[in-house]
Amino acid sequence: MDEQEPVKVEEVEAVAAPPKARVDQVDDAAPAAPVRQRDYLGDFLAEKPKPLSGHEPGGDLYEGVIDALKEIYDPEIPVNIYELGLIYGVDITVDGHAAVTMTLTTPHCPVAESMPGEVELRVGAVPGIGSAEVALVWDPPWDPQKMSDEAKLELGML
After folding, report:
1. Which residues are CB-neighbours of 11 under 8 A, at least 6 positions away?
2. Looking at residue 29, what is its pLDDT?
3. Domain 60-155 carries which CATH code?
4. Contacts of 72 by beta carbon, 8 Å cutoff, 6+ apart
5. Which N-terminal residues, if any, form the signal peptide (predicted)?
6. CA-atom Rg of the chain in angstroms
7. CA gap 139, 56 in Å, rounded
8. To 5 degrees, how large is the angle CA 130–CA 104–CA 109?
9. Which of 86, 91, 98, 134 is deepest in the core (most CB within 10 A)?
10. Extended beta strands in 1-150, E state
């Protein structure tokens, strides 16, 4: 069992190509291809999405308000108030009234008196916004989990 035969190597000049598949006869009695049933999602997929009015998320006016909020920075933290998670909601009516619901990091925040006014001014300055209203709420209280990943990265929390 310990004895092994030497490996034999056979050299060849060329290898014949394998034969190609052929259909010698066509069977006319073969069943036709099954007829595809109408796709039940066809109408749904053909429907075009409704254009955004601008007053809901993804619309130009809404995104303009969000961009304005991203320009306002907390004076103690080098991150804008939107990424900090201080903005709880933005509602825009058809007639251009914007209602912003926000909070502050703490009730004793040094900008508690001036920040809502600044938010109201910046949002009111967005073209297409006729008036702005800011509601300062304390429930639910702000915590660091409300910050975006970008804000956490900026503050070294990720």
Report:
1. none
2. 62
3. 3.30.300.130
4. 80, 81, 82, 115, 118, 119, 122
5. none
6. 34
7. 24
8. 120
9. 98
10. 87-92, 97-102, 131-136
The residue type at 101 = T
Position 27 scores a pLDDT of: 60
Predicted confidence (pLDDT) per residue in 92-140, tens digit:
998 889 999 999 988 888 888 899 999 999 999 999 898 999 999 999 9
List the chain domain ranges. Answer: 60-155
Judged against a pLDDT cut of 80, whether residue 52 lies above it is answered with no
In order of 74, 82, 108, 113, 151, the CA distances from 157 in angstroms are 17, 17, 23, 28, 8
Q: Quick one: pLDDT band at residue 88, thresholds 50, 70, 90?
A: very high
**One-letter amino acid of 15:** V
Beta bridge partners of 135: 101
Instruction: For tokens 């809404």, name the residue.
Output: 62
